[in-house]
Amino acid sequence: MAKTVNGHEIIQLFEQFSPKAYAMEGDKIGLQIGTLNKKVNNVMITLDVLENVVDEAIGKNVDLMIAHHPPIFRPLKHVATDQPAGRIIEKCIKHDIAVYVAHTNLDVADGGVNDLLAEALELEETRVLVPTYEDQIKQLALYVPQEFEEAIRTALGNAGAGHIGNYSHCVFSNEGTGSFLPSEDADPFIGQTGQLEFVKEVRIETIFPASIEKQVIREMIKAHPYEEVAYSVHTTDLPPIQKGLGRIGELREPMTLGDFARFVKTKLDVNGARFVGDQDAVVKKVAVLGGDGNKYIHQAKRMGADVYVTGDLYFHVAHDAMMLGLNVVDPGHYAEKIMKEGVKAKLQSLCSEKKYDVQLFVSESNTNPFQFM
């Protein structure tokens, strides 16, 4: 049976794969308009929050928009409803549409903007281009009655714990006997107040990235039958997981820069792609960074990229790339629209696991300001 869901529950699922901790310092993320403290039936994923997008959301009875680009980025001095920015806020509030933003945290996230771009370009053996965050590995140990072992294993794995390389739901367990004495104020799941109880229990251990500790503990407690859950969290000596902006990998087969620029245009479904370099140059190792990646051309070169795919390339930065001998392909900032279907797919999968009664849409509104002759 499908379950009704509120905004907080949707965002809790979303932040399982795009934690706020991944965002760059000072970035404008999280809830920007409205409230999450309400029932949510319809969620729309969008790249931008422009007036045409808000009008689309109104027409689709959307309760929550999840956007990549923040509608409120610079500090507001006023909300003038006779101005475009003010009208956007006014319409969202009038129609009770909450707006939640995942910006650089979605760029960094596994399966986020940069992974989606790398996947679309069919890159292999990808790794982080610009490290920005180290996720420490922690260990969780807890005790549960034997008959609830499988439920706890599943809850932990679904919350993101127990991921090791290409494997998920990695858990160790061993059996033992637990004892406890419920006080007069207790409401024990097993046993009676004032009587010492002995229970066949299982000790479960797993690991998880520190960035998702709250959600792992929350889901574990939710699935656990006991009124008071005995658990402990420890730091480990395991190397941290490196997260960051951009990806670098290799094409299956080398191609000329000219052919690669056309390949980028097709795969990212854009109207044009500027490039810097000799169109007959052969490229195989590719760096990609969604949005404005001007400041990272030197990093792409240091990492050995033959070509760097990024948006909003500046004139003088293009000169710098030429002098570095780095080929560049610029498909524009709007190439990030790829996030809409990608986020929808990941969030839909998580909502289905929870049996949430919610509809997910991607915005069909065009927010690209540029036209091409």
What can you see in these coordinates?
Pfam families: DUF34_NIF3 (PF01784). Belongs to the GTP cyclohydrolase I type 2/NIF3 family. This is GTP cyclohydrolase 1 type 2 homolog. Keywords: Metal-binding. With 373 residues, this protein is α/β, with parallel strands linked by helices. Helices cover 29% and strands 29% of the residues. The chain has 11 helices and 15 strands. The protein has helices spanning 7-17, 51-59, 84-94, 104-108, 113-120, 149-158, 213-223, 257-267, 297-302, 315-324, 339-354; strands spanning 30-33, 42-46, 64-67, 98-101, 124-135, 137-145, 172-180, 197-209, 231-235, 241-256, 274-276, 282-292, 307-311, 327-330, 359-362. Helix 2 links the parallel strand 2 (42-46) and strand 3. Helix 2 (51-59) runs parallel beside helix 3 (84-94) and helix 6 (149-158) packs antiparallel against helix 7 (213-223). The protein starts with 6 loop residues before the first helix and ends in an 11-residue tail after the last strand. 38% of the residues are buried. The mean pLDDT is 95.
Total individual domains:
3
Which range best describes the helical content: under 10%, 10-25%, 25-40%, 40-55%, 55-70% or over 70%? 25-40%
Q: Tally of extended strands?
A: 15
Residues in β-strands, percent: 25-35%
Shape: globular
Strand neighbour order, sheet with most strands? 5-10-12-13-14-11
Q: Which regions are unreliable across 5 or more consecutive residues at pLDDT < 50?
A: none
CATH C-level name of the largest domain: Alpha Beta
Helices, by number, come to: 11
User: Residue-averaged pLDDT, rounded?
Assistant: 95
CATH topology-level fold name of the largest domain: Udp-n-acetylmuramoylalanyl-d-glutamate--2,6- Diaminopimelate Ligase, Chain: A, domain 1
What is the H/E string?
Answer: HEEHEHEHHEEHEEHEEHEEHEHEHE
Main beta sheet? 6 strands, mixed
**In the CATH classification, which architecture of the largest domain applies?**
3-Layer(aba) Sandwich
Radius of gyration: 24 Å
Q: For the terminal residues, how far apart are their CA atoms?
A: 52 Å
Organism: Bacillus pumilus
InterPro entries: DUF34/NIF3 (IPR002678), DUF34/NIF3_bac (IPR017221), DUF34/NIF3_sf (IPR036069), N-reg_PII/ATP_PRibTrfase_C (IPR015867)
Keywords: Metal-binding
Protein name: GTP cyclohydrolase 1 type 2 homolog
